[in-house]
Amino acid sequence: MVQQNRITARTNLLGLIGHPVDHSLSPVFQNAALNALNLDYVYLAFDISTGDLMDAVRTLRTWRLKGINVTVPHKEKIIQWLDRLDDTALLLGAVNVVVVKDEELVGYNTDGIGFAKALDFNQINLNGKQVALLGAGGAARAVLSVLIERGVRKVIVFNRSFERSLQFQQWAKNSFTTVIEIDNWESFINGQSSFLSQVDVLINATSLGLSQEIIEVPWNGIDSCELVIDVVYNREETPLVREARKKGKKAFDGKMMLLFQGAESFRLFTGFEAPIGVMEKALNEALR
């Protein structure tokens, strides 16, 4: 919890912007970490619609914020109003951290770090695996970069917008030597894609599940799938993780990815290594 009695006129402001954000647990563990290190910051969440994003970015300087995390649906669109990007954000074309440095807005992406560390936490080896990746946005780009780094054999992307899938495929072709395949969303939910019978791992990198939406997974068509990863998280299990576990598959959601990307964000914001144990404890307590 934020220690309200220590906030002064000199307290530094950090935040999260996205839409929606009322489910977010970032303020819980970020403020716990700030308090643990006795840093004069406070971290708040701001629900910003797409139409208000430009004005919100301008206020970073006006209100002298030190930095923000960026979540759906703003990770790509926000780039046009930033001054520069680090190499990872430039590669991914997506930003989930903005730091204000000497009036300059600098974009970073810590989603890949978060996803990679979540894999390690869950002791997942993806080498040689065949992966069905749902989504073609900023989170999917970060996930794909880690999948390639971890030596997956094949990736096929399904997205609700086939045009976005084509753009994603072109981006991947320009960025990596690994070739990815795409198929339309209907082929996935109807179980008609020929690739589904070969899938070892299913990863959801869309926003579906954020508001408890159910993804129509053709479970009978992916019998070979042994692992389901949902980048989305909720205080409860996401519908995808719940269904996967009912089917006897190993599954986990995006909470640990959130924690690890948040720890790297903390370092970028403050210059201090995050007290990861404090952050994890605060996150777990919030989930009880």
Automatic annotation (TrEMBL):
Residues forming the Quinate/shikimate 5-dehydrogenase/glutamyl-tRNA reductase domain are 125-207
Task: Fetch the Gene3D superfamilies from UniProt.
Answer: Leucine Dehydrogenase, chain A, domain 1, NAD(P)-binding Rossmann-like Domain
Query: GO MF terms on file?
Result: NADP binding; shikimate 3-dehydrogenase (NADP+) activity
| Reactions catalysed, as given in the entry | shikimate + NADP(+) = 3-dehydroshikimate + NADPH + H(+)
Q: Which InterPro entries match?
A: Aminoacid_DH-like_N_sf (IPR046346), NAD(P)-bd_dom_sf (IPR036291), SDH_C (IPR041121), Shikimate_DH (IPR011342), Shikimate_DH-bd_N (IPR013708), Shikimate_DH_fam (IPR022893), Shikm_DH/Glu-tRNA_Rdtase (IPR006151)
Q: Which UniProt keywords apply?
A: Amino-acid biosynthesis, Aromatic amino acid biosynthesis, NADP, Oxidoreductase
Question: What pathway annotation does it carry?
Answer: Metabolic intermediate biosynthesis; chorismate biosynthesis; chorismate from D-erythrose 4-phosphate and phosphoenolpyruvate: step 4/7
Q: What class of enzyme is it?
A: oxidoreductase
- The residues responsible for catalysis, as annotated, are K75 (proton acceptor)
Q: Which residues are involved in binding shikimate?
A: S24, L25, S26, T71, N96, D111, Y233, Q261
State the EC number(s).
1.1.1.25
Chain sites annotated for binding NADP(+): D87, G135, A136, G137, G138, A139, V231, G254
Cite the Shikimate dehydrogenase substrate binding N-terminal domain residue spans from the record.
16-98
Annotated SDH C-terminal domain residues: 257-283
Q: Name one Pfam family in it.
A: Shikimate_dh_N
Segments forming a coiled coil? none
- Which terms does the UniProt entry file under GO BP? amino acid biosynthetic process; aromatic amino acid family biosynthetic process; chorismate biosynthetic process; shikimate metabolic process
Q: Which family does it belong to?
A: Belongs to the shikimate dehydrogenase family.
Chain's role? Involved in the biosynthesis of the chorismate, which leads to the biosynthesis of aromatic amino acids. Catalyzes the reversible NADPH linked reduction of 3-dehydroshikimate (DHSA) to yield shikimate (SA).
- Quaternary structure, from the entry: Homodimer.
Q: What is this protein called?
A: Shikimate dehydrogenase (NADP(+))
